[in-house]
């Protein structure tokens, strides 16, 4: 039996290759799909079937590209009007030699969600593994808000039924293979466990011990951000994304050429670290550190205007291109040749972002000219606490709330470390805020320096000053 798990970092996406007797299936492939063909070929297997557990919202599915290079059949749930592939239903089974794959309809995260139950008939009739898509994760379950608030209760009730009537009744030893791991936006708090089982989840996953009423109420009140690019992913994955054929070729732009792009519609993204960006950057550019691109570029970039990268040494840009195409950004166009140094060697204008340490902020905590802006997720603020006097706007929604930020004050932005703070600082500068500072170290550095974090209840019930 062939079994291999392929992890796509940052997006925390899991896909799987399973095979026996020369035939293999792939479950939930990513768009840059050559890796699956290579795994099959190196083991003398032919990929004959591709399963999509659901249409997915956080990345472009790779089944059409993989089918193009392998000739495999694409299978997906029947409750969505896909423009490609073949619909499957509850109880449909598929054989790979002694391996049997059974379709189980498990709606809730999406209406068409399916899980794939695997048996090895050469050993036992008992199930061995279940590929749960986004229904069940390690330590969590799928989000139920993506069909819209009006359907959130219905979807939550569907997911509860899928879990308790279809998945959890399976034997405790069944291995659970979800489509995502820790860090994915498709769950609220997925655990950082490489593997898990039905029995372990029943014992350790607190959501699974809730009554139906508790579960639905919990899911109705769950706070998870939905990046705007999700709508594009839903459309592409329903209709069938454009075939990729090969990764986009990046053009090398000179500093002079890049300067001419500043007056056009090019989306220029500085992928350096917050400290490099703060020390000097091209005016009006957005800073998203390299490994933050898959998480945050979907909040700010469009799918039409060319994307141009600015780095220091332009190393491993192939990885950045893969980040882009997995989210459908085929408009990735090029990079600044010779890195940011080429810009200042030409004598071009540069901008700087201020930086503070925790002690700098502590000295100005009561300064009325300072406006402290917390850009973490609201859940982090509620769970971990916040810096005294700070205001909150999530970094992904900052551009929608710029009118709430005073233009006549020194804006000190912070997140948990400083990377998202740098995104926020670059957005504010791009929109004309001239006195912007990023708190390096964020709340982690703040607490490490022994400065206090305020909890909501502490502020609410604090005794009045004498």
Automatic annotation (TrEMBL):
Annotated keywords: Hydrolase, Metal-binding
Task: Respond yes or no to whether keyword Hydrolase is given for this record.
Answer: yes
User: Rhodanese domain spans which residues?
Assistant: 262-352, 366-455
* Taxonomic superkingdom: Archaea
Write down the Pfam families for this protein, in alphabetical order. Answer: Lactamase_B, Rhodanese
Keyword Acetylation part of the UniProt annotation? no
Q: Which organism is it from?
A: Methanoculleus thermophilus
User: Would you tell me the protein name for this molecule?
Assistant: Hydroxyacylglutathione hydrolase
- Gene Ontology molecular function terms on file: hydrolase activity; metal ion binding; sulfur dioxygenase activity
User: In Gene Ontology terms, what is a biological process of this protein?
Assistant: hydrogen sulfide metabolic process
């Amino acid at each position: 039996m062939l079994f291999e798990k392929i992890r796509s970092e940052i997006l925390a996406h899991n896909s799987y290759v399973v095979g026996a007797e020369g035939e293999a299936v792939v479950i939930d492939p990513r768009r840059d799909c050559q890796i699956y063909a290579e795994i099959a070929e190196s083991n003398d297997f032919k990929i004959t079937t591709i399963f999509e557990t659901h249409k997915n919202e956080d990345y472009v599915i790779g089944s059409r590209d993989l089918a193009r290079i392998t000739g495999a059949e694409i299978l997906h749930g029947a409750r969505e009007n896909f423009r490609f592939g073949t619909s499957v239903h509850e109880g449909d089974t598929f054989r790979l030699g002694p391996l049997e794959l059974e379709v189980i309809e498990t709606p809730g995260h999406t209406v068409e969600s399916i899980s794939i139950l695997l048996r090895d008939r050469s050993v036992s009739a008992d199930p061995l593994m279940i590929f749960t898509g986004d229904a069940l994760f390690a330590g969590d379950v799928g989000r139920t808000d993506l069909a819209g608030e009006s359907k959130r209760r219905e979807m939550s009730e569907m997911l509860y039924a899928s879990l308790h009537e279809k998945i959890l009744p399976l034997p405790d030893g069944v291995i659970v293979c979800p489509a995502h791991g820790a860090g994915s936006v498709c769950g609220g708090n997925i655990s950082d466990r490489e593997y898990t089982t039905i029995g372990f989840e029943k014992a350790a996953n607190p959501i699974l011990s809730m009554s139906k009423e508790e579960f639905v109420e919990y899911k109705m009140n769950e706070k998870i951000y939905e990046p705007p690019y999700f709508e594009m992913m839903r459309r592409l994955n329903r209709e069938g994304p454009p075939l990729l054929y090969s990764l986009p070729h990046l053009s090398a732009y000179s500093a002079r050429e890049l300067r001419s792009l500043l007056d056009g519609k090019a989306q220029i993204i500085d992928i350096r670290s917050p400290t490099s960006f703060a020390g000097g950057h091209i005016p009006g550019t957005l800073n998203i550190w390299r490994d933050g691109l898959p998480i945050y570029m979907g909040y700010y970039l469009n799918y039409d205007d060319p994307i141009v990268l600015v780095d220091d040494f332009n190393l491993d840009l192939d990885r950045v291109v893969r980040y882009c195409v997995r989210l459908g950004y085929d408009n990735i166009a090029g990079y600044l040749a010779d890195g940011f140094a080429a810009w200042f060697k030409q004598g071009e204008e540069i901008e700087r972002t201020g930086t503070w340490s925790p002690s700098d902020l502590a000295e100005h905590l009561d300064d009325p000219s300072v406006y402290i802006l917390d850009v973490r997720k609201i859940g982090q603020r509620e769970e971990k606490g916040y810096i005294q006097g700070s205001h909150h706007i999530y970094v992904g929604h900052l551009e929608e709330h710029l009118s709430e930020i005073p233009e006549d004050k020194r804006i000190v932005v912070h997140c948990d470390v400083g990377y998202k703070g740098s995104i926020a600082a670059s957005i504010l500068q791009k929109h004309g805020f001239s006195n912007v500072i990023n708190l390096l170290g964020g709340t982690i550095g703040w607490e490490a320096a022994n400065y206090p974090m305020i909890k909501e209840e502490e502020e609410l019930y604090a005794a009045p000053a004498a």
